[in-house]
Amino acid sequence: MQTPKNTLIKLMSIAIASYVVSASVNAGSPIPYDSWTESAGVITADCPIGFSCMGDSSDHGMMQRILFDSNGDQYIHQVITEFTPDQGNMTLETFVFSSNDTATPGIASKQHIYHDQTTKYMDVLIYLNTGWANTGENVVQVNQSKNIVTNNNTNIFYEDSFTYYERRDTTTQEINGIYIDISQGQLGSTYFQSDGAIVTSQSDQYSFVNRQASGVFNPVAGSASLSNLFPGNERILDVNGATGGGTVTWDPGDSLRMIWWGQYCIGCDSNSANMTLQALENITTNTATAGQKRYVTSPMLWPEAPFGAEPSIIQY
């Protein structure tokens, strides 16, 4: 028989593999998530106001019960959680509507993995709201972040994050919008150091961002151009066979992707190592523009609709 921890790890792995292909994130659950406590493997949960509860069944790190709302609708509520010093906290909480055979299939689920140590952490959070739990907000929401300090806790830092939102039509359940944000930062590389040594007074730092928006996450038309602002200090690049440096336009719902990479060298003799590289692509129309610029580290342009707040070099 599997232990609760092994069961949870298996369920987490299935969820991440299935939905990382993936607002009120609590919109789909009949009661707020985390309305329970855990101590030494014993999970305790009060029956929520407006509900009646029955069929409580529990084991070490596990709890299952049935919730009845004021309309008589039934929800199977299950919590699986485990903590170990070497693996951190792992939790899976689900609600399954079980009133009758004609109800729209679906699930409301929150999955969380959190690991915290003095020199590193990992935080993975996944929400899933499908079928009856799809209220028009994000059907799938994945947030993952990681921070690592190496070299005996000095000078080398890595930070990575991944965000995925997916929305589906409440009637057809067809996907009508996707938003993706992939970010990475590093401090302590030796790309532009003449002596190759990692020292506090001279270390490279960079940030990389890849954001993509489509469907309902791109609600307005727009245009953007990576123009040649400082001749001699930049290169115009080609993307997907299109000529760089031009203008990209888009209509509501088009699938857009923006890629930005910025770097500067802390303590270098000049700012010649500072640069930014950026590309914008309309995947729907197969048009793109891209450019590289020296002496600057911020994006050359950044339409907040639909790409959100402008990124910057990650500070440590």
Give a structural overview:
This protein is mostly beta strands and 316 residues long. It has a domain at 212-305 and 312-316. Helix content is 6%, strand content 49%. The chain has 2 helices and 18 strands. It has helices spanning 4-19, 304-307, and strands at residues 37-39, 42-44, 52-59, 62-68, 74-84, 88-97, 108-116, 120-129, 140-150, 156-168, 175-189, 203-215, 222-225, 234-237, 247-250, 253-266, 275-282, 287-294. The strands form 3 sheets. It has a 14-stranded antiparallel β-sheet with strand order 3-4-5-6-7-8-9-10-11-12-16-17-18-14, covered by helices on one side. A two-stranded antiparallel sheet has the order 1-2. Strands 13-15 form a two-stranded antiparallel ribbon. Strand 5 and strand 6 (88-97) form a beta hairpin. The longest helix is centred in the N-terminal third of the chain and has 16 residues, at 4-19.
